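Chain A, query sequence.
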Amino acid sequence: MTFIATLILALGMSMDAFAAALGKGATLHRPGFREALRTGLIFGTIEMLTPLIGWAIGLAASRYIMAWDHWVAFGLLAFLGGRMLMEGFRQTAAEPCEAPQQHGFMVLAMTAVATSLDAMAVGVGLAFLQVNIIMTAITIGAATTVMATTGVLVGRFIGPVLGKWAEVLGGVVLIAIGCTILVDHLGLFR
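Chain A, predicted structure.
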């Protein structure tokens, strides 16, 4: 695989992380570069590890992973998105409360895992090709770090515009990513 092909793959793998980070950034109170980078590093590290895990599983379990990865991703994203929706609507019904300064590690890690399951499936596919999996995984992780960091920083400007609806929008984005993954893997609308 050429470097350009690897870079295109890495950018494609990082798009859903960008969308999720955008929603995360919009729900925070003026996230700075440090928080954006923290989020980007969590997303990037997990996105780097998942193709390695998929590659290691390789041929033996590929059909089982491919059969269920989209359901797991959909379930996680729907759960996290639903939780954000409930919190967002609870805030709109109650008194407005101050947006958090940062998201907890587990919330970010669960979101990152859910958005990176497709990278695990790609890793399984890469086991059939003659690729340098380490360099490919590092490229995917680096692209995801940059995209997720950018997403949080862009979300910083969207958050004040959306106000209390930012968390609702973030939940909708996560659920939409999950539905997109599910529809794509099930081959609906083809």
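Residues 11 and 106 are 24 Å apart (CA to CA). The mean pLDDT is 80.
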